Amino acid sequence: MRDAAVIEVENLTKRYGSVTAVDSVSFSVREGEVFGFLGPNGAGKTTTISILSCLVRPTSGTARICGVDVVRNSLAARSKIGVVPQEIALYGTLSARDNLVFWGRMYGLPDRVLMPRVDELLEVVGLTERSGGRVDTFSGGMKRRINIAIGLLHRPTVLFLDEPTVGIDPQTRRSILELVRTLNEEGLTILYTTHYLEGAEFLCDRIGIMDVGRLIAVGTKRELIESIGATDLVRISAKGLTTSLVSEIEELEPVERLTHTDDRVVVNAMSGSNLLPVVVDVLTRGGATVVSADVTEPNLESVFLHMTGKFLEEPEGGTESDAQA
Amino acid sequence: MRALHIALKDLRIKLADRNTLVLMLLMPVVLTAIMGFAFGSDSGISEVRLAVVGPEKGSLLADGAATLLNRIDIFEAEVATEEEAREAVSSGRLSAAIALPPGILDAVVGGDPVEIRVLKDPASSIKAGIAESMVEQFAGFASAGGILGRGIYETIDGDAPMTDAERLGLAGWMFDWMRDAWSEPPIAIESADQEVRRIDVRSYFAPSLAIFFLLFTMIGSAKSLHEEREAGTLGRLRSAPISDASIVAGKLLGTYLLAVVQLLGLLALAALLFGVSWGSSPTAVVVMALVTAAGAAAIATVIAAATRTGRQTEQVGTIAVLVMSAVGGSMWPVTEKLEPVARFTFNYWAQRGFNQLVLYDAGFEGITQPLLITGLIAAVAFALAVALLARAQTQ
Description:
The structure holds two protein chains of two kinds.
Chain A: E1 5-16, E2 19-30, E3 34-38, H1 45-52, E4 60-65, E5 68-69, H2 74-80, E6 81-84, H3 96-106, H4 111-124, H5 140-152, E7 158-162, H6 170-185, E8 189-194, H7 197-203, E9 206-211, E10 214-219, H8 221-227, E11 232-239, H9 243-250, E12 255-260, E13 264-269, H10 272-285, E14 289-296, H11 300-308, E15 319-321
Helix pairs in contact in A: 3-4
Chain B: H1 2-15, H2 18-39, E1 48-53, H3 60-70, E2 75-79, H4 82-91, E3 96-99, H5 104-110, E4 117-120, H6 125-157, H7 164-181, E5 189-191, E6 197-199, H8 201-222, H9 224-231, H10 233-238, H11 244-274, H12 282-306, H13 310-328, H14 339-342, H15 346-360, H16 363-366, H17 368-394
Parallel strand pairs in B: 1-2, 1-3
Antiparallel strand pairs in B: 3-4, 5-6
């Protein structure tokens, strides 16, 4: 990884009427880095990536790709980026090869360059055998891989991956993450948005946590965890959870922070494994039935929960109360 | 160049779609065949039986007009009062009645606009519509012939007042002139044998249904703008190093190419399957088809650009196509009452151009007006489509 900034964003803001989708976001991405945007749906990740892809004009602020302003010189900026949108942006009735050839032509690649590149990418994404098949007959994972291959056709300096693993099974998700890591190891700079922890933790050198349009923290995984104090996460699902039981748990000595829904309690504590049996005992005595319980060491979800008071992969339904101010 | 790739990609996708092909080619052909079977024996219409109603009973004018009409093979005309004519038309014995207004002879001889009422039974609209259309053609020729005839008469006889016999004689001369002016018999009046000439309904419906279904196909094609937006491919196109103008040009060109393929395909199929003759000027037919295709593609793109989703495009487009086709003559011949409104529709002018070629073999000269007006509609719609699309891209 080198120090030159490939993406530079300063005070980027996008408003739609009274709604602020992106609110004064600033960050930079270095050459060869995988930078992840982590946040729930509606956090502003896709709007940010859409501005960087020259699809949406910002209300204010600046964004540069390799020093090229995405608003003032969008054609030049677009030639430096590869975009893999969240949707399967392919023509379903065309074959995988024909899709690649069409998009290669859109990037202005002459046939003598394009045709070998198409063969090469089909090989990279493991679809050489199926290259003549109609895309709408492919599985979700195969479509995702072609979707990524299109973003690589013109050998971009930066690849934008917007939720590339949405809606696919864990095994395929893993193979796509490994493909992205290989691309990065070959030198490609990647801006990756996700609301899945697995992808962010597996791929990203640095992570930006976004919520309601704001970039609330940026750093490596270790830096982010350290910034909130290294507490364990105790998660318990229970039937018959009442407000009084939640309050009782909240008052236990080691509890630093508690978040709950109607049937779930998540507690930050220094020694989660010691706390768990105590919490289960409180619940059982109070008439609740414990359905599941686990303790995890601090991770990005803990960070997200600490910083936003929300569950990352369950954006709705959570309420928060802090055990300690 | 990238616009061309976008256009060819769109064309390829559409032509690979079985539903599109059915709508484009099969439906118009099947419907044309059904119309042929439904509205005439041996898929044609034999002579049109008419009554001529004079300004007063036993008028010399009505007798003369019936005699003149009977000189044309397609018509079998008799003289009747308005009451007799109405009864004969409603009973189906006659296809239509032509009511000559008082002062018509003066108007014809004076070269003034000629207005002839056609009485018809709405239930038998095809033959009556054809009769009406023929009468309209004759009225146009009569006005032109009147000016010419009057000029010749005044050259010979100075300012002397004309007697009724002289005026009728002049009218007869004009009628002969009019018939001669139709140097080739109208294509619609085709000879089944030496004795009977017939109008083939399919010669009327082949172009009208082609235009009708062309518009429908174009709506389906133009809505791909929204489909691409919804699928994310439009966003992907816009994030590639390609200008918005090229994307718009590519989408328009793709729709236009599809229109050309469909229209030329339908004209060829009508000729091959139904023996429809498109006249002796293939160039005129192709130019008329290219301009008509441009108009249909541009109108459909305007509708797509003015709506927000593919579903909206389909709904608004369907209503627009049905209204334009009903008013403009793609479903049935344009009636006298509807004509002032029909003139504002794309279908009317496109259909008129093809009718001139298929019914009268009018060549380039005969399609100048419909060609220019269809082209004008295409140009205005194209400009509007580009403006709307450009606005949508910047939002």
